[in-house]
């Protein structure tokens, strides 16, 4: 009992910051583990098609999709950063894979590596956000434990931080820039204060020897005017070429850097102008490097033209300007989706940062209220860390809200300043003191029951954890999660198919399939045979047809058309055999059955359900509460009653446990991506004229 009492006393006296740091390290390790698991959730096609699809396809000479952003005539994406971050590491990885293949007969170049290795690089970069946050907290004497805990447990870092979005790089670059600006602001404020103090002492000095001593002390102060100038300018150039929206995020940070010490006797407008000029001058090397590399890649500039010195202004491409020109046209951005101006403020910020996002919006509204009420003494000092972080949050948020296309990932760079300012509220509550200037019964009730530490502190951290776990599971493991297993299955089909056989895959109501994950050698590139030392070109044998949200009747027409063309080639002189597959969300299986019933396609098309990849949720085809189990659609017993059979799910509702459990099972099993193999009936059997056979046994090696 004495030992138990001793341990309980130690537990009560434990340092809570140690527990917060331990929890942070758990989430930091979890971020790395989630890369290798891997996360199958598919957030947005830009995760692949803005970098990985092109870089991996180019390096390994694979079939890949080059989106319109990489059009040589008017490219809007810089290739320099993706080339450095992927092509160079892929070269080392390929060199390692060659020796592993020779020594241990293990193939490291596969679909899993194409998914995980680029994510690993971006995840390692994401850890720089943690270091920058810790660095600023140490510089300004802030509590770093709860801030690191909030950053590490945020689903923004656990999901977006491990993905190959350009927004993930933008988040890291904003963190680097904020760290440098915060360090420069602190150093300038410290040195300016010391300098003015010494000047005041110098003026009051009574003797020459004392003045000489003070003068020497003042001259020994380190320089601060141009600190981190080259690093900051280079980060800004790289950020703009990565995503030109970096202009909106970096502008307030650079503005605070330029204004350091302004309003004191030591810093004048001459220093301000000098900083601007030298900042632009130091940005030139990085600017020229990016323009040169992009111009070479997009073939606007060639080595022959450089050798002959036949170079003009048309030989150079400036991708950020092309990006800005494209997005300044509202009709262009409207093609990607039109959103109201309040979506960022009322939807995306709460979704990304949940309770802390709401706290940030309320805190900013309070600052605006104090400003308009002329309560200037209650506002933070302009050249303070609070003003810097507030500007880094709300200036870009305002301008991004003016654009008619608004996605949550566009706000990723707000994560760093928002958590640095508001993460302590997870343990202190919304407000430790009464925040209002006037005493009113309603305001007092609001403070006592919602805002004060006693009322809000016990719940905020729990709400934070629950929201982040939900979003991590949904976007990391459920949303469009069947795409990668589908790519792995197709890679296996292509690798094991007979010679002179084409593979056709049709998809509908899903995101685009990254072709490089199928691991099919490119038919447009020359390949080298190390045995014969000859170059050759492969014939194309994999065809992908993506039909978005096409209605099922129209999709069935596409199936008929493609099957007809394949049959012509099969019966022609080339005698090309083929395999045809259809991948649709499981909730659409009954629509497929109904479409086949309405048409005569069932007389010559045979759909066989090969597998259902779980989990998979497509927002274009939500599961239905009274939908069919995908394996019940076109069930085999219907072959005996000429489609007059009924499914248990469709029986009249009863309160029996069997009915409810069947409904629940059918609903859960709709969270999948169904893969059908389509065969053409070449010899029609009278008894099976209207029959659709479905093999309900999925293949174990390819199910998710």
UniProtKB/TrEMBL annotation:
Membrane-spanning parts: 21-43, 103-125, 146-162, 246-264, 276-298, 352-373, 385-403, 463-487
EC annotation from Swiss-Prot or TrEMBL: 2.4.1.-
GO molecular function, a single term: alpha-1,2-mannosyltransferase activity
Keyword presence, Transferase: yes
UniProtKB keywords: Endoplasmic reticulum, Glycosyltransferase, GPI-anchor biosynthesis, Membrane, Transferase, Transmembrane, Transmembrane helix
Location (main, coarse): endoplasmic reticulum
GO cellular component: endoplasmic reticulum membrane
Pfam families reported for this sequence: Glyco_transf_22
Annotated metabolic or biological route of this protein: Glycolipid biosynthesis; glycosylphosphatidylinositol-anchor biosynthesis
Source species, domain of life: Eukaryota
UniProt cross-references to InterPro entries, sorted A to Z: GPI_mannosylTrfase
GO-annotated biological processes: GPI anchor biosynthetic process
Family listed: Belongs to the glycosyltransferase 22 family. PIGZ subfamily.
Protein's UniProt name: Mannosyltransferase
Organism: Drosophila navojoa
């Amino acid at each position: 009992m004495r030992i138990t009492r001793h341990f309980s006393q130690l537990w009560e006296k434990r340092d809570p910051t140690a527990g917060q740091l331990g929890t942070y390290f758990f989430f930091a390790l979890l971020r790395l583990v989630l890369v290798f698991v891997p996360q199958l959730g598919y957030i947005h096609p830009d995760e692949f098609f803005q970098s990985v699809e092109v870089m991996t396809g180019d390096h390994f000479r694979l079939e890949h999709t080059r989106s319109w952003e990489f059009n040589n005539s008017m490219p809007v994406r810089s290739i320099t950063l993706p080339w450095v971050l992927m092509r160079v590491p892929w070269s080392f990885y390929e060199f390692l894979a060659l020796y592993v293949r020779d020594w241990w007969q293990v193939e490291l170049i596969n679909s899993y590596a194409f998914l995980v290795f680029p994510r690993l690089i971006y995840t390692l970069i994401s850890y720089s956000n943690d270091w920058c946050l810790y660095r600023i907290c140490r510089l300004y004497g802030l509590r770093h434990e709860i801030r690191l805990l909030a950053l590490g447990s945020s689903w923004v870092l656990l999901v977006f931080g491990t993905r190959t979005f350009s927004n993930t790089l933008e988040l890291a670059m904003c963190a680097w820039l904020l760290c440098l600006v915060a360090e420069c602001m602190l150093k300038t404020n410290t040195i300016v204060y010391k300098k003015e103090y010494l000047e005041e002492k110098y003026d009051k000095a009574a003797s020459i020897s004392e003045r000489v001593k003070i003068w020497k002390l003042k001259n020994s102060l380190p320089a601060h005017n141009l600190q981190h100038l080259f690093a900051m300018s280079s980060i800004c150039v790289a950020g703009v070429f990565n995503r030109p929206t970096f202009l909106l995020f970096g502008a307030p940070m650079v503005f605070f850097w330029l204004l350091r010490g302004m309003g004191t006797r030591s810093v004048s407008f001459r220093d301000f102008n000098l900083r601007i000029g030298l900042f632009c001058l130091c940005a030139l090397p990085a600017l020229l490097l990016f323009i040169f590399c992009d111009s070479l890649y997009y073939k606007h500039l060639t080595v022959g033209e450089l050798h002959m010195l036949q170079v003009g202004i048309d030989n150079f491409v400036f991708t950020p300007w092309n990006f800005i020109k494209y997005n300044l046209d509202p009709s262009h951005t409207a093609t990607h989706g039109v959103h109201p101006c309040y979506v960022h403020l009322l939807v995306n910020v709460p979704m990304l940062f949940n309770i802390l996002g709401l706290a940030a919006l309320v805190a900013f509204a309070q600052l605006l209220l104090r400003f308009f009420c002329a309560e200037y003494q209650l506002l933070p000092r302009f050249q303070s860390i609070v003003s810097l972080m507030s500007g880094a949050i709300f200036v870009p948020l305002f301008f991004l809200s003016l654009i008619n296309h608004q996605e949550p990932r566009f706000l990723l760079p707000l994560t760093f300043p928002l958590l640095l300012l508001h993460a302590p509220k997870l343990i202190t509550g919304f407000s430790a003191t009464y925040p209002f200037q006037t005493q009113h019964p309603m305001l007092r009730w609001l403070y006592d029951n919602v805002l004060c530490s006693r009322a809000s502190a016990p719940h905020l951290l729990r709400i934070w954890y629950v929201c982040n776990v939900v979003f991590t599971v949904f976007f990391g493991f459920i949303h469009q999660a069947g795409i990668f297993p589908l790519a792995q299955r197709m890679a296996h089909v292509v690798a094991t198919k007979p010679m002179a056989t084409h593979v056709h895959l049709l998809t509908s109501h899903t995101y685009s399939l990254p072709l490089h994950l199928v691991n099919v050698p490119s038919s447009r590139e020359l390949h080298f045979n190390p045995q014969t030392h000859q170059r050759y070109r492969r014939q194309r044998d994999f065809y992908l047809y993506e039909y978005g949200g096409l209605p099922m009747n129209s999709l069935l027409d596409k199936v008929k058309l493609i099957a007809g063309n394949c049959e012509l080639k099969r019966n022609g002189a080339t005698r090309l055999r083929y395999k045809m597959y259809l991948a649709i969300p499981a909730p659409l299986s009954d629509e497929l059955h109904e479409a086949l019933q309405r048409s005569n396609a069932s007389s010559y098309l045979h759909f066989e359900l090969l597998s259902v990849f779980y989990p998979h949720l497509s927002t274009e085809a939500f599961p239905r509460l009274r939908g069919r189990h995908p394996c019940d659609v076109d069930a085999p017993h219907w072959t005996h009653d000429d489609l007059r059979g009924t499914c248990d799910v469709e029986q009249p509702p009863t309160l029996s446990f069997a009915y409810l459990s069947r409904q629940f099972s059918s609903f859960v099993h709709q969270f999948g991506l169904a893969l059908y193999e389509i065969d053409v009936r070449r010899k029609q059997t009278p008894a099976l004229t209207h029959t659709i056979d479905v093999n309900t046994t999925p293949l174990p090696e390819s199910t998710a």
